From TrEMBL:
The UniProt record lists the keyword Glycoprotein: no
Residue numbers spanned by region Disordered: 1-25, 81-105
Name assigned to this protein: High affinity cAMP-specific and IBMX-insensitive 3',5'-cyclic phosphodiesterase 8 isoform X3
Keyword Protein transport on entry: no
GO molecular function annotations of the record: 3',5'-cyclic-nucleotide phosphodiesterase activity; metal ion binding
CDD domains (UniProt xref): HDc
Annotated Gene3D superfamilies: 3'5'-cyclic nucleotide phosphodiesterase, catalytic domain
SMART domains in UniProt: HDc (SM00471)
Residues covered by the PDEase domain: 514-861
Signal sequence residues: none
Active site: 591
Residues annotated as binding Zn(2+) 1: 595, 631-632, 767
Amino acid sequence: MGCTPSMLLDHKSRRRDSTGSQEAALAKVAPTPVCNKAVQAARAPRASLESDGFSIQLSSKKDSYVSQMGNNFATQLHIKRISGSSGGSPGARAGRRSSLALTPEDEPLVDVANRSPPPSYIPSALLYAPPEPLELLCVFPERASRVCAAASAAASRVGGEARTVRGLRETLELLRRDVDPRLPHVVVIDARQPQSLDAIALARAIRGIKNTQHIILIAVVKKSAYLKDDFAVLPFLEAGYNRVMVETLGATAWCAEMLQARSAATAARAQIGAVAALAAAADRSRDLVAVTDDQQRILLTNKSWCRVLGWRVEEGPRPFTETAGGEALRLASSGARDWEAPVTLRRRAAPDPILLPCRGAAVALTRSTSHVVFVCEPTNAMDGERGRGSLHSIRRGSLDVRSVASDGLRRTSLAKLQGLPLEAPITKVITLLSAATEGAPPSTVACIERAVDMLRTSELYSPQMKDEPKLRVEDPIATDLIGALLSQGPTNIISSRRSSNDSTVVRQTNRTNIKHKTSGQLRELLDTALTWDFEIFRLEDMTRGRPLTHLGLTLMGQRFDLCGTLECDERTLANWLTTIETNYRPKNSYHNSTHAADVLQAVAFFLEKERLKCLLEPLEAAAALVAAAAHDVDHPGTSSAFLCNSLDPLAILYNDVSVLESHHAALTFKLTLSDDRVNIFKNLDREMFKTIRHNVIDMILATEMTKHYEHLAKFVNVFYATSGGSKEDGLQADVSKTDEPLSLDTTALSLPENLVLVKRMMIKCADVSNASRPQKFAFEWAKRIADEYFLQTDEEKAKDLPVVMPMFDRATCSIPRSQIGFIDYIIMDMMEAWAAFIDMPELVSHARSNHQRWRELDEAGVTTIAEVMRAQRQYALQSTPSNTTTTTQPTAEE
Ligand SMILES: Nc1ncnc2c1ncn2[C@@H]1O[C@@H]2COP(=O)(O)O[C@H]2[C@H]1O
């Protein structure tokens, strides 16, 4: 916060000088009803208030005061300085309640500007730190690093201890353990291989953690990199390193480095401890304390300041002049070293400023001022109203409820509520926004009020379909689809009961007559399992509808060594995959084990991306793969809404809430734990099991589409800096206006609590990645999902249930339109955010080109599955050979 002990405590450096006293001798203060004491004084024929250092005289008459109070109050307050010792009687001073007295009781206050003080004195006792054995933390991705061994050996030689971790997350977890008494003094970080460890990001992340300023950070760099550039150390220093060291194995060099680092760490710890102590003292003071830099930017304000003025500490520095004005500021900026003058302070929640006596001091460790301290004393009138020495409202309603509540005296029920130590972030946000309306132009107030109204609803992440006339009016199919995907529970829709020529005959997908291919061919196919155009439907055919087991063994078993991470054998993994696969229903055209294999493949593909490799631990990667494979297990081929409407036992069991996803997650664990031969988790200890269970459940539940916008909005809000453009209600319906590059907030990556958003987004994108696959796959998936929707509509009609998506009637539905809507409203924003995050632009380009093709088909009047497939066959024939890769995918018209 830029606050040093000298700022607050040093009174010895003050010199008394009368220069400038004239300037402040009679301050004309803005006509303001000052305080109750002032009011009392005004009611007396002639009144004078004296507080430390000030004499306040009211020259107005009682009547004029009363009549104009609160509006155009013309009373002038004359605030006089009391020069020398004469003004401040010992009694008056003794009665002063300031807990942060800048002036000792036995010294008279002087209203002088002291223009040539010696540098501020820092009490050495405050900077004393007992020697401690060195705690060293080495962050080296390479466990066997010899440089790391040399550093650790040096730490022992100087009587310390060393620990080693390998990466960013381990380091941050260790440093975040607030209670760990072994917080390191020194952290040595291997900066030689940026591809293994991003040392710059790590330093930034460490410095972002509370109470780590005293830790000495040393970057170990390659000699070549160091010699190449005179300024090579700069990025490291800017990121928060204290030192940069060229890699060495030399024991003497490391020993010297460790000794220097220990002494620097001890000194830093003492200094920062002292600053923290003084900040804590300021926070406990009833005076309003602010510290600025020499440009009058606020660096520190104490709690009283924030409470009285309606500020939040975390709002950060801002120009002091936004809040404060008056003589005090003029004196502070004139270069005076030590002064007393009135200050006017503007409050957030009240239109009128308050006037307080203020003591100020400039702090300098050299000849120039580094900090200016303002200590404003609550007036006697405030105390009078409050009855005990803490801050309070000068006038009714002048302080916010929180400050009333916090003093514990006015025990209104509201105050009690507000005084509770619990406060939801949304309450804070609403309070801040409401405060921001003060003095704002009417249009801004209207905007903020609308925003606050929206925030008060519980459905923050549910997009409002009604506000999208374009979607509703022009595209009933998209309305149907998106509405059904995003709404939970039983349907309110009264079925439109469109007539359909279709019978309710289930159209089974023809699985073709291709014989089961040799293991050689299968092997060859599985070798391409980590490509984005992986032939999933060929795998379905070759494995006769058991793609999940085969792909799972390849990806989970071989590529990601799940058996190593979970300490299970391959047989158990194979059994698990078979069990899960058997519990998918092959009769579903879309939600079968091929979809599970497809999602598993997408997750595996994502996990191979650098960003995720750095972020996720092996156990988290394993959880993601398990969740992907099992995320739709036992899907009935109908939606949750259908289950609710038909009072299905699952809907009864899960109370119409997240019915399908709850079932998939619960069944996954039921199947897994029911038999040791299947239980891939059986060798995990309790903690690891808890972690993986939590991860798997969370990821499966994240696939629920009713939470789509919630997950997407949270991810975007956390990882991307907000841009100027607003997306009203979170919906973006135009894929053509999405060319602006998204800028990633890398610091958000270092916070473990944000990882959950990444994992959710990963499985969500995998779940609907079919629309971002190359065209031939995307079209086959579109056909399959439409088939499944049509069957649901058939069944709803047959059973006289509400029809969840009436437009999905095979006789009338336009497949291209449904896909255009799906890409516009579900896919595009999400894939853009995810593609930028993992650096996979093809997710967006495939979605765009699929969108384009669907539009062409729509414009050509193509609607049914059969027409789509016919048009696509012709299209493939006309296209270049590279676009006509043969697949074994079934055709639609069987
Ligand atoms: N290509 C698509 N067109 C329309 N809806 C889709 C498409 N792909 C996935 N979905 C829907 O998105 C949902 C994602 O979750 P589910 O797998 O439960 O069910 C999926 C389908 O209802």
